Amino acid sequence: MRTTLNLEEDALLAARQFAAHDGVSLGEAASQLIRLGARTQAARPKAAAQPLRGRFALLPARDEVITAAHVRKLIELEGL
Predict the structure, then answer these.
(1) What are the C-alpha distances in Å from 13 to residues 7, 10, 28, 72?
(2) Residue 28 maps to a domain
(3) Are 48 and 40 in contact (CB under 8 A)?
(4) Assigned domain for 26 exists
(5) Phi, psi at residue 13, to the nearest 5°?
(6) Which domain holds residue 15?
(7) Per the domain annotation, does 64 fall within a domain?
């Protein structure tokens, strides 16, 4: 299938090097690299999506309320 892609320069250079090393066309090299990336992405374990507030992940709800006393006790235990 024929198509036009706009590649970043580093991606184009990598595909050209791959093609030259494996003795295949640039199109075949790009296809192989895309397939390899897709397989790698599919094999990666999915991170559990956590809701965000701003850029901070929210912790799951707990049965207890965290108070300043809890925090002070943890600071003591951790030696902070």
Answers:
(1) 10, 5, 14, 55
(2) yes
(3) no
(4) yes
(5) -65, -40
(6) 1-45
(7) no
| Residue 1: inside a domain | yes
Structure tokens belonging to residue 49: 């999506």
Looking at the 3D structure of the chain, how many domains does it have? Answer: 1
pLDDT, one tens digit per residue, over 3-54 is 898 999 999 999 999 999 999 999 999 999 999 999 887 776 666 677 888 8
Q: Residue 12, exposed/middle/buried by CB under 10 A (0-12, 13-18, 19+)?
A: middle
Axis crossing angle, helix 26-43 with helix 9-22, rounded to the nearest 10 = 110
> 53-73 pLDDT, tens per residue?
888 888 888 888 889 999 999
Q: What is the pTM of this model?
A: 0.52
Residue 34: closest CA among 60, 51, 14, 56:
14
